[in-house]
Write a sequence for this structure.
């Protein structure tokens, strides 16, 4: 029986990384301080925040929205950083809606290593687009996710769209537009 091959060479770095060793270098701070946005996968900068592609995405289009300042707790955020984070999450969802047309999203924070934070010292929102049927047998059988688009291709797509200007897109079809509606 012939088997298809699944190539995901960017995952090798994650696989061979020693998980028991603490991360000594904050990739978000490195991206914020760096000048090479493409190498650091920085797709957008705001006055107090940054948007980075997740190098080890759960799904295609997985973004990280973070304050530029290295803080690990919500209580440490300034009002400007908190508002900027919320607005940036909203705006990036609008861009992903336009470009990738997901059916939904997982959006959230993992605060502290016990909560699943891979970088517990620099809080960041995960924005993960989801599609009906985007799960399959691969994660169950081989602890493998299939990501259909390379990070460089996604980087180019997002930065080209963001260069045309920010702004959120209209709500997704089927989204409730009634402010008095309670779910």
């Amino acid at each position: 029986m012939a088997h298809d091959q699944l190539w995901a060479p960017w995952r090798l770095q994650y696989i061979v990384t020693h998980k028991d060793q603490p991360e000594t270098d904050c990739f978000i701070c490195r991206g914020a301080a760096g000048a090479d946005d493409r190498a650091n996968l920085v797709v957008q900068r705001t006055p107090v925040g940054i948007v980075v592609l997740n190098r080890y995405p759960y799904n295609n289009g997985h973004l990280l929205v973070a304050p530029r300042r290295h803080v690990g707790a919500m209580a440490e955020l300034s009002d400007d950083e908190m508002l900027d984070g919320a607005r940036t999450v909203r705006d990036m969802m609008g861009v992903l809606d336009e470009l990738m047309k997901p059916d939904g999203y997982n959006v959230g924070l993992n605060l502290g290593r016990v909560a699943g934070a891979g970088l517990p010292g620099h809080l960041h929102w995960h924005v993960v687009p989801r599609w009906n049927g985007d799960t399959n047998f691969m994660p169950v059988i081989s602890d493998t996710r299939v990501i259909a688009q390379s990070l460089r291709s996604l980087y180019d797509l997002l930065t080209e769209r963001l260069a045309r200007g920010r702004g959120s897109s209209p709500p997704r079809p089927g989204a409730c537009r009634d402010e008095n509606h309670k779910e």
User: Anything to note?
Assistant: Residues 103 and 173 are 9 Å apart (CA to CA). Confidence is low (pLDDT under 50) at residues 137-142, 168-174. The helical segments are 12-16, 27-33, 37-40, 79-100, 137-142, 151-163.
